[in-house]
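Hi C.,

You asked whether I'd gotten around to modeling the 461-residue construct. I have! Everything is below, sequence then structure, no commentary in between.
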Amino acid sequence: MFRSQDDPSWLFCMSRVLGVETMLGNRHLALGNRVAAFGNGARTLGGRRAELKNRVPPREQSSGVRERSRRVEEQSPDVREQTRREKEQTHPVKTQSPAQRPHHPRQTPPIHPTLSAKSYTSTHKKNDTIKTGKYSSREVTNVYNEPIFLQPEFKERLWGGTKLRELFHYPIPSDQTGEAWGISGHANGPNKILNGPLEGKTLAYAWDTHRQLFAEEEGEEFPLLVKILDSSKTLSVQVHPDDTYAREIENQNYGKTECWYVIDCEEGSEIIFGHHARDKQEFAAMVENEEWESLLRRIKVKPGDFFYVPSGTIHAIGAGIQILETQQSSDITYRVYDFDRVGNDGEKRELHLDKSKEVTTAPHIDPEIERSYTIQAGLKNETLAEEMYFSVYHWDLDGSSQVLKPDPYTLVSVLKGQGEVLIDGQSYPFTKGDHFIIPATVEAYQLKGKASMIVSHSNKA
């Protein structure tokens, strides 16, 4: 609706508009004054900086550095090159790649009593470890062009002794140490890795997360376990189940087929290997009646003997024997007879008679093993067993071997002597008591030295 200029309400509205405009104009003026003041301040600061620059010549306080730089610039190119070489000789630059740095497992594993875990850490290849501690499968595949050295796990046993220390210089935990697990991914004693990007991790971890190292072999667990046993007393008479029984009854992935290589023994030592029962019924009756002398089959042994022990075989290692055992990765044992011994708790150890009767093979059948050997260059390769779960060889090295390839990955336990693994021109020394794996990521390698070793590989792949 139109209003006259004489209308009081209209005059009031106009006065309000004029007041707002006046207020906005004043604020705009004030803002302009502040901007001008800021510009003056910036010019003042610039002037002070210029004054300071003229007053203090740059880097004048480092005249020693400037003088040395001037002298270097005035030198001829030949003199500068000589100076650089002298500096590198005095303070060499550490720019070696992981493959160029020397690896000496003998110096590093805590298995040798003269060197502690701390000294191992200080001498090993720390630059191989990414700071995050995490590796992709591709990174591990690219880096592990070298053996994987492992730290043994020791097991105290009622029948154990001190030979693991005397023969291999292992720092055993007590004078009743019966086993050194040299290559193991088993939950009861997985080995720690001593070198490379997985240093400090376990073999079980490597199997779970970096299967390329093992040629993508299938299976929930690392399939084999290699150990050295020292029996100062006779072990219990025992038997192991096969894979089917282990899965159905024990909820374990593997039964236990094993084999033994006799490293050393006292004269007259013997093992229990098999039984004389004609069938399962007679076996059960002889066990119930404790007819041990009639039931058990005893065999004399000497260094270098080899025995293949399938699941279901009654067996026991006698006193005074040291063996290297290659087996499926299983720790299931059923005791049949324990010579009425008592454990450290003062109680007789548990027997497993019902399960033993179920899994024992009766009648006993000796497995047929035909040992054969070949010699190529400086390596004598003796085949001990080529069976369902594993193949096992005894290698005698005297000089340099031919070029070898992992099959598809190779397990090595050094029993005597020393030598080196040569991969792409790099040397990786080993000595008696070392255990290592040549992973599938190594295309080829050679051995050099004088040594005796037990070598094996899985036949699952």
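If it helps when you're writing up: The longest helix spans residues 8-55.

Thanks,
B.
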